[in-house]
Each structure stands twice: as structure tokens, then as C-alpha cells.
Write a structure and sequence with these properties.
It is built from twelve helices and ten strands. With 291 residues, it is α/β, with parallel strands linked by helices. It has one domain: Aldolase class I (TIM Barrel). The radius of gyration is 18 Å and the shape is globular. The protein starts with a strand and ends in a 5-residue tail after the last helix.
Amino acid sequence: MFRGNLTALVTPFRDNIFDEEAYTRFVEWQVREGVHGLVPCGTTGESVALSEEEFQRAIEICVSVAKGKIPVIAGSGCNTTEKTIKLSRIATKAGADGLLIVTPYYNKPTQDGLYAHYKAVHDATDLPIVLYDVPGRAVVEIGVPVMQKLSRLPRIVGVKDATQSLHKPLQIARMCGENFCQLSGDDGTSLAHLIQGGHGCISVISNIAPRMCSEMHEAWMKEDIQRAQQINLALQPLREALFCETSPSPVKYGTELLGFGSSQVRLPLVPASPSAREQVSGQMRELGLIS
């Protein structure tokens, strides 16, 4: 259902207000550059810092620009089940094609708690659900046995795997089936994840280099492994620069250099440091993304 290069979109702010004009231009550019999907309001989009009104508008803009040509998967997860359901219903009303639902952070639910949470959201909503497994941010990890159990629910269709494990995709494919959509949540291992049975990547670096990221995935789909490896190698220094400090501060500086709004982030995040900015701009010049 979802495959290839999907951009985990940043949310531009100006004077701490959602910059809808810059965001619209940015999403239009992403579509022109050939991305295979759009993911608004995820971690990279500073979802936890958005109001419900901003959350809804970000999704509505993506849907309007995508025009049904590529899918829009809205990050509607929260650390409470009740609010996750509320946000998921707002995303549905806004026209999203799917929901990306992070594991409840801070609460540290057990595996039984994770199952109960996702089942409750599934039963209260109507769209396809992609689980978001990111223990580096949420502390808890979705065990493969629980994922297998969740995969039997009709609208839980896949997982965004940000565990950085290259063993887990094989386990998931074996226990959840090859049709269970596996999307990498880690740019650095995205090509390796495809080799291990993945179907695509929800990408941070695609905010800056969407065409190159999409071409890497298309090369893989065409079985042009050498070309995919060449692009993967070329992108690696920029990936490292974009994660030299807490994301999305560095990547928002990159989108500012491209002309899509400011690099402002909302507290408790702060803008990228001078050192991080130098790394990001240097790698963008190296790839010819800016002059």
C-alpha cells in the first residue's frame, strides 16, 4: 500500500506561527521532485508542538497539493489513547489516506498495553494504520509477537521501523507476512532495510534531497543495485549532518536555505547551532543542492 520514498515533512514557522504559505510551496516542490508519499505532523513535523488547528491545516494542505496522486499519511499518535483517537479522527476529516501512530511515549506501557492501545485506536477509526516503532524517542519497543497480533487486525497495514535493527525486518516479514508494509524510519539504514525485506522509507533527508532519495528507491525497484548504492553513498555525509543535533533543527535550517520558510523550531527545541549550520550548508553545497 505504501512504498518508496515518503518525506517526513517539517512544519515551517514564522514568528512562532505556522507558515502556511511556505509550507504549501514546500509540499508542492516535494511533489514536483517525485516523492512517493507525504507524511505531515510526525516527529520531524514537531507534532507534539502543534495545536489541533495547525495539525488539521497541515494535513489539509498536503491533501490539497497531493490531489490523490501520492498518499498522505498523517502522524496522529500521542501518548494517550483518547487523544490519539481524537487526532486520528481530525486527520480522517482532513482527508488523509493513512495514519502513522507512534507508540505512547513517557507512559512506558507493557506489550499488553501497546496491543490494547493500538486495538482501541483501530476500532475507533477508519483509515489504514502504520505503527511507529521508535524506542529512541518513546522508550518502549513493539515486540514482534505483538506486531504479529496487531497485523491480524484488518486496517493495521504496516510499521515505520526506527529501531535501526536490520534483523527485525526479517522477523516481521516471517511473522506478519510479506504484504505487511515495512517502512524504515532511519535514513542511514534505509537501503539495507530494503534488502532485508522493507518496502520504503519515511525520510528526514528527503526534506532536503527529495529527488535523490526517490531515485535511490526507484533504482532499487528496477533492480539497479549499483545505482542505488551510488546514491546511498553520496547521501550519507548529508544524513550525518542532519542528525548532528536533535532533529528537526538541522533539517529545518536546510529547508530555510532552500527558501521554504525559516529555521525556527518551538521550545524546548532550539535552532541549529553555528557548527551544525556549517555542516548542513557544506554538505548541501557538496551535493549541488545550493550554490
